[in-house]
Amino acid sequence: MTALDLTRAQWRTSSRSVGNGNCVEVAGVGGRIAVRDSKDRGGPVLAFPTPAWRAFVDGVDGVRPA
Fold first, then answer.
1. How many other β-carbons are positioned within 10 Å of the β-carbon of residue 25?
2. Spatial contact of 29 and 17, defined as CB atoms under 8 Å apart
């Protein structure tokens, strides 16, 4: 597996964030979507193929609170 170069990543806070500090940030990098914890910006990053991320987001959009 090749490491992603995140030096030019343009991170943005998730639109699902509610402002309580428990947020994720996302960035498009090298044809993938990188995800990190906004409280630990130097910590680990998960990377997903764009189609997999889109499927995840579409699934979350379909979830309704109980």
1. 19
2. no
pLDDT over 70, % of the chain: 85
Predicted local distance difference test score (pLDDT) of residue 1? 57
Q: Which residues contact 37 (CB under 8 A, 6 or more apart)?
A: 23, 24, 25, 43
**Count of CA atoms in the C-beta half-sphere (13 A) of 28:** 4
Name the DSSP class of 41: T
CA angle, residues 10, 20, 52, in degrees to nearest 5:
45
For the chain, the farthest-separated pair of C-alpha atoms sits apart, in whole angstroms, at 41
Cα separation of 50 and 12, whole Å?
Answer: 16
